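Amino Acid Chain and Its Fold in Token Form
===========================================
Scope: a single protein chain, as residues and as a discrete description of its fold.
Amino acid sequence: labelled as such and written in the usual single-letter residue code.
Position: the record begins directly beneath this header, with no further notes in between.
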Amino acid sequence: MSTFEDEGFLSTSMDEWSRACLGQYPEWFVLCREFNRYCVQLLPKLAHNNRQKHLTVALFLRLLSLFESSIILTERCMVNETKIQLRAMMETLFTLKAVSIDETTAERYYYNNIWEKREALRRYKRYGSDDLLKGLDLDKRLEELNGVIRQKRIVQLTTKDLAEKAGLSDFYVSAYPVLSWTAHSNVIDIGQYIHGESDEEIEEVSWHPLMEGVDKLLLTAMECTIIGLQSVTELFSLDAAEEIEKYSQRYHKLAVANKKPRDG
């Protein structure tokens, strides 16, 4: 059996860590897996026949796969990697809800890729090496994209815009920036690997599996997916409100129970 010191998170010893994590948070993993199964079983009912519905289904599929990956990562005691997934989940949720509640936003989102392509090529032209640019007529392509942007009156749609349109600004200004610290490897976040008597002196840098806070991460993943599913079922007029409420009550009950001080 290989150890963490041998192969990190790919070591066979991680199986023991996974069993320990499942044992410490059994209710959370059971709930998340049951809810995921419910979401997957609803997918055949999402008959999409216009652009808004096409985009909503595609975004929900992305949200659901990120939810599943967060379960896999937390079970593997990869807490920081789960935080990065949760940041992506929130971005997907902002877009999903904004698109599902407003057809105009859905159209703006659909064409926003033209704006993003134009900005990427501008950066490419400014900073790319000659070797990379060889054989590419960027000026011509930029002119084409600018023409489409003018014709369709495309205006940039930011993550902040989508969060506001989705009515999720509270997420955007609270949990989202904290999760972004991890995604961007901010010193605030990577400081967890660094140990010393003070901020001025680093004595050790270490790396190991983590189980602390897994319940909070799974709670966040559940909340994002539940909000996303509510948006989907409302757009598709599915009779799922009662079942979704049952899952909401279960995860709120677990969250309250986890806040209570433990014996000993």
